[in-house]
Input
Amino acid sequence: MRRPALLGVLLLVAACASAADSTTTTAALDTTTTAPPASTATGDAAFPVTVAGDNGEVTIESRPERIISLSTVATEMLFAIGAGDQVVAVDDQSSYPPEAPRTDLSGFTPNIEAIISYEPDLVVVAYDLGDVVSSLETVGVPVLLLGPAVDLDGAYAQIEILGAATGHVAEAAALVAEIGTEIQALAAEVADLAEGLTYFHEIDDMLYTFTSETFFGRIYAMFGLKSIADGADPDGYGWPQLSSEYVVAADPDLIFLADTVNGVTPESLESRPGWGGLTAVREGRVFEIDPDLASRWGPRVVDFARAIADAIRSVELEPAG
Output
């Protein structure tokens, strides 16, 4: 389980480094607005439709009925907007929702012949590995590349793009509104409690983390929290690897563990040199967080935000400053 997780982190680093050129993401820190219309569709039955993915404009002639998703995030989005019945196969990492037709197809090492064997009329990918996009386009299969979003507007845009591409425009718009409303409400409830406090989000026990300029860092920032990694990312990649000494010196107010699947627990942190004296460890401010929620920019970002809010509410915090 460790290798796919680390590979995913490295791919996110590469993708986010070039996110300014993406057609479905924005570099703005403001996450309170919704994305503009994602296609030229005028209604759920409006086909053909042209949508804009990270691979440019993609025209879909008719409502797709044999969709393949090689993206964990796209899989969640498709089912959330009501297009699940149109999905015939998803990749081996698409663990949610449980009813998704999971296969041994890979988004990291795509097998073109295996993909084509499902006779897809639309393929959605998060990464263009192995030239999967051009290979599918060459054989006439519409393919939509939707890479990592850098903020909520980027995630909203992808939901609306998939809504237009699958004939679920209204459902996609409703989902975007629901996500935005709930996250803003959660942030408003607890932001004053955590304003100015710092956190360390541990992706794995190699101490990879992210800054406030990444998708998930921006979610934390909506709650008033600041990543201790902000001062350890001079190149601006957003996903630095910290040293244990750096974390100890930064002494974060809160710690979030997204690597408990690898045996890391709040209790195990005390055995790391110097970590037993950390404020978060000493005061019981260490929280486990589902690694899927902390790595997928899809509709369950609401659950990620709720986990942050619950953590803030569960502890007695001294006023910042």
In short: The first strand starts at residue 49 and ends at 53.
